[in-house]
Specification:
This protein has about 375 residues and is of the alpha/beta class. The chain has helices at about 30-40, 45-55, 65-70, 75-85, 100-110, 125-130, 135-150, 175-185, 195-215, 240, 245-250, 260-270, 280-285, 290-300, 315-340, 345-360; strands spanning about 1-10, 90, 115-120, 120, 160, 215-220, 250-255, 275-280, 305-310, 310-315. It folds into two domains: about 1-15 and about 75-360, TIM Barrel, CATH 3.20.20; about 15-70, no CATH class. The protein binds zinc ion. Zinc ion binds near residues 5, 7, 93 and 311.
Length: about 375
């Protein structure tokens, strides 16, 4: 499969702390202790441990140390995991910060042994410009320039995590004057919560620029790490933005299956010909219901606009686990649909599209 959604992994191996695979981000010792105590009580932790034990040929208790030994040849270990789960290409979001470059994507591709298509996340630039005191027009110009430069720098698409900032209730009528005022009015807030009207205007504009560049645009929807306010991540909040000229012109991907709003995502994908559904991340954490969640999207959305991924990050085992689970989920859905009468030739086409072809054509593999 081509993984439609991944992030960089560590530069080296070592013993694996499974409880570190978590959406909770706090880095203090007390939070880490809570994670280590509660981790083994989570189903996703249990299933990953059991499957890794089988892969490494050890008991579940021995996984941390066995992984440490197996990963002494780190690149070999990573490539082995990727080969085992059948990932043959990946869309990479390298960017939590402005230091991310496409050169890192090239070394990542080298490590994992498959082609990688990096995408440019917009918020690191917007956040830094707001923090530096830039005005609204300056921020817009900065975003436009970065997007225009992106194809030449080796990027194959864009991404916004505005859901983590001021939320998905984007006001399509935000003006430059409102954007400027929003910076002044929110100056006392943390940078991530500043400038809602500016961020709304920047996103609407960015969709237009992405459309002109013919590059796909990911919008974070649904759950994520612990910094998100989940109520602000419902994809239906995007409806007004998606009705604007820019929102209709861009190739939009709503990611993470919009967990837990799968039917909402399915409907938007059905009703709007430029909207795509990207299924990832819930296959790392909501592991008993992967097939059900996939089916809630796939039964309604055109399967020609559904992409499957992992949201692997940090530890290569997350890619491995997520890829196996989403393929197993699809097999379950496929079997159900076969019983209902879908032809196997049609199911073969759907499988190829959601696991490979749709991502391949959008990101030009
Ligand atoms: Zn992600």
């Amino acid at each position: 499969m081509i993984d439609s959604h991944g992030h960089p992994i560590a530069d080296s191996g070592g013993a694996l702390d499974l409880s570190a695979i978590n959406v909770e981000l706090a880095t203090d010792d007390a939070s880490r202790a809570v994670r280590q105590q509660s981790g083994p009580s989570r189903l996703s932790h249990e299933l990953l441990g059991v499957r890794l034990a089988a892969y490494l040929g050890c008991s579940v208790e021995e996984v941390p140390e066995a992984r440490g030994r197996a990963s002494s040849d780190w690149s070999g270990y990573v490539r082995g995991l990727f080969a085992d789960c059948g990932i043959t290409g990946m869309v990479l979001d390298p960017g939590w910060n402005l230091d991310a470059t496409t050169a890192q994507a090239a070394s990542f591709a080298q490590m994992v042994g498959c082609p990688v298509r990096p995408i440019l996340r917009l918020e690191p630039l917007i956040d830094r410009m707001i923090a530096d005191g830039a005005g609204a027009a300056e921020v817009l110009a900065g975003v436009e320039q970065a997007m225009q430069d992106a194809p030449g720098s080796g990027y194959f698409g864009f991404k916004t995590i505005i859901a983590y900032r001021t939320g998905l209730a984007v006001d399509p009528g935000a003006t430059l004057a409102r954007a400027e005022a929003s910076l002044r009015e929110s100056a006392a807030l943390p940078v991530r919560r500043r400038g809602k009207a500016l961020r709304d205007l920047a996103l609407r504009s960015a969709l237009g620029w992405a459309a002109e560049l013919h590059l796909p645009f990911q919008i974070h929807t649904g759950f994520g790490d612990s910094e998100i306010r989940l109520a602000e991540a419902n994809p239906l909040l995007l409806e007004e933005l998606l009705r604007t000229a820019e929102g209709m012109a861009a190739t939009v991907l709503l990611i993470h299956g919009s967990y837990p709003w799968h039917e909402e995502l399915a409907y938007l994908t059905l009703a709007k010909p430029n909207v795509h559904a990207e299924l990832s991340m819930f296959n790392l954490y909501s592991v008993a219901t992967v097939a059900d969640r996939m089916e809630r999207v796939l039964e309604l959305a055109p399967t020609s606009r559904v992409l499957c991924g992992t949201d692997g990050h940090g530890h290569p085992e997350t890619f491995w686990f997520g890829a196996h689970l989403i393929r197993e989920g699809w097999r379950t859905v496929r079997d159900r649909w076969a019983v209902q009468g879908a032809r196997s030739s049609w199911l073969d086409e759907v499988e190829l599209a959601i696991m490979d072809g749709n991502t391949r054509s959008l990101y030009r593999f």
